[in-house]
Structures are given as structure tokens and as C-alpha cells.
Amino acid sequence: MNRKQAYELLIKYLYNKNLLKHSLAAEASMKTIYKHLHGEDLNEIEQEKWGIAGLLHDIDYQLAQETNQLDKHGLLIFEKEPGVIPEDIAHAIRTHNFENTKETPVTDIAWAIACADQLTGFIVAAALVHPDKKLEPLTSEFIKNRMKEKSFAKGANRESILLCEEKLGIPLNTFIELILSSMKSISNQLEL
Questions:
Q1: pLDDT band, very low/low/confident/very high, at 40 (cuts 50, 70, 90)
Q2: Cβ neighbours of 117 (radius 10 Å)
Q3: Percent of the chain residues past pLDDT 90, beyond the cut
Q4: If DSSP codes are grouped into helix, strand and coil, which group holds residue 61?
């Protein structure tokens, strides 16, 4: 599956503008995480695969919402499109919502989207409360300070974000910087 095919599949199921932007943020984040983890051993095909996992991770979110099955978010797409999504990407999609699906991530790509998914949403919330309502002035310190505020962006699972250290070996400060920089690089697409 290439990026064009993945995007066409995505817009077949996901049509909410904000969810599409979130998917783009997750795609950029995943490519950046892959590059960070693999450095000089970077494989462009693998990096695209990681991006596609980010792009498609919420593909069935609206379907789950509309059918009142949010506990199956990450699973429903495979009932609708069996065998279409490659297994390593499918595993990442199924397990990014592991708190509900009870299927645990076991690969780096799966842990990366589980952590990045929550942080991209958190960063958008931080941008929206910033006076400029843009990503550009945000710093990792600003994001980290906001994470300490339990009443801020309550929907973002901070524990999932913190797993970046244990599961990916990426310190929290570095992880925030990676995700923030990847989102800033596509700020026009994100309209932030």
C-alpha cells in the first residue's frame, strides 16, 4: 500500500476536517519518529510505512462514533476492508487504542503511534490556547508544563505519551520536540 492508496482509503471513511488534520499530524510525526530511531539506517520505504500507519490510525473513528462502538475503534476497519491494509500497519492501527481494544502493541511502529496519537492531540490543544493560536511559537517546555496541568486537555492520555521513554527509548523532552517539529513542518496543512 502506498501513500496515495492509503489517503484514498482514509477519505472513504474519515471526512471530519479536524480528524483528517489529526491524521496528517500523526503521519508527519510517525515519519519523524522513524527517522529519529533509525538515523543513518533510514529506509525510505519503511519510513513511508510508518507515515501510513499514522495517516490511517484513526480511519474508523467516525464509524466507531456513529455506531456507538468506540471500544472497537481500531478494529472496525478490518471488518469493512479485510486484507487491504498490510499486517504491520494493521497491528499498529488495532493496538493504538489498546486501552479499549485490549490488544497490546508489540512493535516499535505500534508503540510509536500509541504515544504520538495522544501527543499530537495535546499539542493542538496547546496551540489553540496560546495567544497566537499557532504552532510556531510553541516550545517543548510550554507543552511539558501544560502536561503537568491535569485539567488541561483531559482527553489526552498522558500515560500513553510517557510510554515513549519505556517502549521507544526516547526521552520525553526529545519526543515532544520531535512531534512538535514535525507538526510545525506541516502547519499550513494543519491550519495552525
A1: confident
A2: 25
A3: 91
A4: helix
Tell me the CATH number at 105.
1.10.3210
Instruction: Specify the number of domains making up the chain.
Output: 1
Quick one: what percent of the chain has pLDDT higher than 70?
Answer: 100
Contacts 24+ apart (CB under 8 A), 168-175: 168/33, 168/37, 168/108, 168/111, 168/112, 168/115, 170/33, 170/36, 170/37, 172/144, 173/140, 173/144, 174/36, 175/33, 175/115, 175/119
Q: Rounded to an integer, what distance in angstroms lies between the CA atom of residue 57 and that of residue 75? A: 10
CB neighbour list of residue 176: distance below 8 Å, 6 or more residues apart? 119, 140, 143, 144
User: What is the domain extent for residue 18?
Assistant: 3-190
Q: Is the pLDDT of residue 170 over 90?
A: yes
